[in-house]
Amino acid sequence: MSQNPPLLRPDLARATVARDIARPGQPTIGMVSLGCPKALVDSERILTRLRAEGYAISPEYRGADAVIVNTCGFLDSAKAESLDAIGEALTENGRVIVTGCLGAEPEYITGAHPKVLAVTGPHQYEQVLDAVHAAVPPAPDPFIDLLPASEVRLTPRHYAYLKISEGCNHHCRFCIIPDMRGRLVSRPAHAVLREAERLVAGGVRELLVISQDTSAYGVDLRHATDRDHRAHITDLSRDLGGLGAWVRLHYVYPYPHVRDLVPLMADTVAQGAGVLPYLDIPFQHAHPDVLKRMARPAASARTLDEIAAWRAACPGITLRSTFIVGYPGETEAEFQYLLDWMDQAQLDRVGCFQYENVRGARANDLPDHVPDAVKQDRWNRFMEKAQAISAAKLAAKVGTRQQVIVDSVDADGATCRTMADAPEIDGNLFIDEGFEALTPGDIVTVTVDEASEYDLWGTQ
């Protein structure tokens, strides 16, 4: 974990450009994927469809017949980053198709970049394909390209994001995601499980479950059972946990039924595979009045009780969250309440945003916006608190034995993650001796020898 981890800021996330090798004369498409893992899954699905139709994926702008830019529109700064990416693609290639969250505002894009070939909204796969067909007609080789294509993945081979639903039913004042991606639409449980089985059979050792609101999975389906699988997060987690891979739950709201997931996590601690003892819960703040202004659940004391219950049922559980400081109207007393709450909650992994306006968000119209200098000061103080908590928690792990998954190996050592660490946004465990036989995707047990504020070092 680093301060304000980049992948918690969709506008600062590393752009992903897919790579492939084209045969002579094969039409090629480039892809730049910005933003959160949910957008990354959309990019993977688009590229998989294109590959099945005979397109190759170009590693360079100038080697592509057209470029798709999958944008982020979560924050105004994210929109600016997306416009910059579109501009770069136009400069380097000239034939650009835009999709993703910012595509929900086509006039905003075409006003800045009138030469784009087409604009589609988030998860509009068919429209993206239509735009590609119009710009670069497919020319498949019937002896090669129309064979069943493997899925295109933009993550390392040993882990994959598994999107279980789209959209959100919440109406938080600072967020426009429901306006861009719509209300909750859950995938059938049997379809999710079938995809997970295929991923695990292909070598995936860790499934990262994502959505806008993972806890609400299946609400729109009334938790119906279809083909012997019930559309409920507890049932789905139990099914996924039986596949033999690590299963990590992201974007979980603290509904009461979340406590039913914790026994599954306790079983994983004992067995080494299944639903990881890890909850990624976007608390956003702790003071009841701030939460009310955000239009979020406002019972922070009850949340502390829930945290205590989770830890009692699964002592090894890791809790990650994100928070917003400098929300309109936030007083010094309300911010201090948040710091005091952090002392009580003792969260393991924490990220923090400084509030910023987003065009179309209701929070823009709230009174008493906090000055930028005050927001920066509060962010600094919050991260200092979070860093101290993290350092103490990691220091307590020195001397313990931990299961880790290997992400990469080079001449200097192996970079790994414990069950407490999600890729990119949390910390790492480094092995710098006796690592030569390790390969990415290996799951091994190590002894923790050293700790810093965010990372660990260990030996087998």
UniProtKB/TrEMBL annotation:
Compartments where found: Cytoplasm
Cofactor: [4Fe-4S] cluster
Gene Ontology biological process terms in this record: tRNA modification
PROSITE patterns referenced in this protein's UniProt entry, alphabetically: MTTASE_N (PS51449), RADICAL_SAM (PS51918), TRAM (PS50926)
Family matches, as SMART domains: Elp3
Radical SAM core domain mapped to chain residues: 154-392
Every TRAM domain range: 395-460
MTTase N-terminal domain: residues covered: 27-137
Catalytic reactions on record: L-aspartate(89)-[ribosomal protein uS12]-hydrogen + (sulfur carrier)-SH + AH2 + 2 S-adenosyl-L-methionine = 3-methylsulfanyl-L-aspartate(89)-[ribosomal protein uS12]-hydrogen + (sulfur carrier)-H + 5'-deoxyadenosine + L-methionine + A + S-adenosyl-L-homocysteine + 2 H(+)
Any one GO molecular function term: metal ion binding
UniProt keyword list: 4Fe-4S, Cytoplasm, Iron, Iron-sulfur, Metal-binding, Ribonucleoprotein, Ribosomal protein, S-adenosyl-L-methionine, Transferase
Positions bound to [4Fe-4S] cluster 1: 36, 72, 101
Superkingdom to which the source organism belongs: Bacteria
Chief localization: cytoplasm
Binding positions for [4Fe-4S] cluster 2 per the UniProt entry: 168, 172, 175
Cofactor note: Binds 2 [4Fe-4S] clusters. One cluster is coordinated with 3 cysteines and an exchangeable S-adenosyl-L-methionine.
Gene Ontology cellular component terms for the protein in this record: cytosol; ribosome
EC number: 2.8.4.4
InterPro entries from the UniProt entry: Elp3/MiaA/NifB-like_rSAM, Methylthiotransferase, Methylthiotransferase_N, Methylthiotransferase_N_sf, NA-bd_OB-fold, Ribosomal_uS12_MeSTrfase_RimO, rSAM, rSAM_horseshoe
Keyword field contains Iron-sulfur: yes
Protein family membership: Belongs to the methylthiotransferase family. RimO subfamily.
Biological role: Catalyzes the methylthiolation of an aspartic acid residue of ribosomal protein uS12.
The name this protein goes by in its record: Ribosomal protein uS12 methylthiotransferase RimO
Taxonomic source organism: Paracoccus solventivorans
Gene from which this protein is expressed: rimO
